[in-house]
Write a structure and sequence with these properties.
The protein has 15 helices and 15 strands. It is an alpha/beta fold and 448 residues long. Strand 5, helix 3 and strand 6 form a beta-alpha-beta unit. The N and C termini lie far apart (45 Å).
Length: 448
């Protein structure tokens, strides 16, 4: 008997990168549309199985399908099990979506996945009709469900992007940007990192499979490929071999990775450039060494970081540095130090992000209210002595100043003010309507 699966990524008018923050999800201040790689991989596993059928509805690529339309579409489909990929910023709405799916098809087995589910598992079983709260990465769960054994990252198939409208995964420049994975997890222990808690120990994917992934995805016409590895050059010897194979096999591809600056050397940078490296992203986080020490994050001294970034830029590779604004220990002085540090590192792009507390194990009486709807924030204790308004002021000010220094006033306005304000304005209208998806859909339409 064939078991029919329906996998769903909802859309609620707010642009959320569901594969970010260790699958907590991140509200974006841009128009970039990222694939949900674990969900697509899970769909691929089901599609390759003789005992299962799968349909994927990625509402983001279905012309930004709103929840009322999504529910009407689901009502017309036949399925045995439905899985909703949740995020922290949309968690309450995701729960309501699951409730309505179950109400419309009581015999269906309803599942919800995403890292936020780990914290709310007991609450979900006590307060909803959801049949299964999946605590592990969805691709790992589906592999174990189909094959009856735990998976490594090398066991995963090449993601089949033809199962979705993949040409809608575009960046602000309309490049088709698809994602693959050469490794998962991280051996470091930075206390603020949500990836480590969810993905666990570092493990690499077999090089032959990575090359196969690259060939398959480039054949679809992707303009950019982003490696979703948390620490791409963790094993530099392996990456050298991978780059040489890309070059030797003539794979013409532009790619993006995220890594640590202290794992790079000039010859490795040159080799990665020759193999197609287009943009390299890295975390700096704070300009205050005491804060970095508190969170067990040692990224190298400023002279090393500055010289490495300068070398990367001279090689013709774009650089993007990540900074966290609003650590619990932050003051006005440490925030200013972080901006001065960013100015000295001088990457092409700097992303200043609000600190989010995801260490929720100490929270008692946890409920969905722990996640702030349509925001990158939690209601956890221990936040900065600075107010949310002060932290957000610093984020917008730093982002605007940095963009203005490296680009134009118009871009600073559009990227660091207008898109951000538009998203926050809509979010404020949507809050309180997470349990009324018809009203939520109406508000989004009227605001567009």
């Amino acid at each position: 008997m064939i078991e029919r699966f329906l996998l769903v990524r909802p859309y609620y008018g707010i642009n959320v990168h569901t594969d970010a923050q260790g699958e907590y999800g991140t509200v974006l201040g841009s128009n970039d549309v990222f694939p949900d790689l674990p969900l697509i991989t899970a769909a691929t596993i089901l599609n390759e199985s003789d005992s299962h059928e799968v349909k994927v509805i990625d509402a983001v690529t279905e012309d930004r399908m709103l929840p009322d339309e999504l529910l009407r579409k689901i009502a017309l489909l036949e399925y045995d099990k439905v899985l909703v990929k949740s995020t922290a910023p949309t968690f309450k709405a995701d729960l309501e979506l699951c409730r309505q799916i179950k109400a419309g098809n009581p015999s269906a087995y309803v599942m919800i996945a995403g890292q936020a589910v780990r914290h709310l598992k007991d609450w979900i079983y006590a307060n909803t009709d959801i049949d299964l709260a999946i605590e592990e990465p969805v691709d790992m769960y589906i592999y174990r469900y189909v094959h009856g054994a735990a998976a490594t990252v090398s066991d995963m198939p090449t993601p089949d992007y033809t199962l979705v409208n993949y040409r809608k995964y575009t960046d602000d420049y309309n490049n088709i940007r698809l994602t693959i994975q050469a490794s998962r997890g991280c051996p470091m222990s930075c206390a603020y990192c949500p990836y480590i808690k969810y993905y666990g120990k570092y493990e690499s994917r077999d090089a032959d499979k990575v090359i196969g992934d690259l060939k398959a995805v480039t054949s679809l016409g992707a303009d950019l490929i982003q490696f979703r590895d948390q620490f791409f050059t963790c094993d530099s010897k392996r990456i050298r071999e991978l780059c040489r194979r890309i070059i030797d096999e003539g794979i013409n591809v532009r790619w993006i990775c995220e890594t640590r600056l202290d794992s790079l050397t000039p010859d490795l940078i040159d080799l990665m450039k020759e193999a197609g490296l287009f943009l390299i992203c890295f975390g700096v986080e704070s300009g205050d060494q005491n804060i970095l020490t508190e969170y067990n994050s040692n990224k190298g001294n400023i002279d090393y970081q500055r010289s490495t970034v300068e070398y990367i830029k001279n090689a013709g590779i774009l650089t993007m540095a990540f900074y966290i604004t609003g650590f619990p220990e932050d003051t006005w002085e440490t925030l200013h130090a972080t901006y001065r540090y960013a100015d000295t590192v001088n990457s092409d792009i700097a992303a200043f992000n609000e600190y989010t507390e995801f260490n929720l194990s100490s929270e008692s009486d946890i409920s969905p209210d722990i996640f702030c709807s349509f925001e990158n924030a939690t209601a956890a204790k221990g936040l900065s002595s600075l107010s949310k308004e002060e932290i957000r002021y610093a984020v917008e000010l730093f982002s605007t100043m940095y963009t203005l220094k490296h680009d134009t006033l118009e871009k600073a306005y559009n990227y660091n003010h207008k898109q951000l304000c538009d998203s926050r304005r809509l979010a404020s209208k949507l809050k309180g309507h997470e349990n009324d998806l018809d009203e939520l859909s109406r508000i989004i339409r009227e605001s567009s």
